[in-house]
Amino acid sequence: MNYRNPAPTVDIIIELIDKPHRPIVLIERHNEPFGWAIPGGFVDYGEAVETAARREALEEIGLEVELVEQFHVYSDPQRDLRKHTISIVFIATAIGEPKAGDDAKNAAIFESWRVPGNLCFDHDRILRDYWQYRHYGIRPRI
Question: pTM higher than 0.90 for the full model?
């Protein structure tokens, strides 16, 4: 029997704690789907999701992050049109200047009021949930 399972991924909302207002880092994707995204990627076989989050942050923006908390899990089968993925989203902190690497075309710092409109996947929903949590303490409901 051949099983088709969703692919586990991680996304890391990275707050730069050495900047005023704790802006976040987004990457502009080098590969399809094109647009801006929260840094992240696929979890390798045999890898813990926490390890994957740290690895993806380092590969994509060149910063070591401190994972603060596991924020939420997003699993809508349509969140990534390439295949069914499940994303474990972390909130992390970092210090320094992000630099695009791996499959990131650009890396940039954004305040909540000026996030680009062309976000990939379901990252607009994730960031709306994050801002609700960050500003009002309201976590996403299941």
Answer: yes
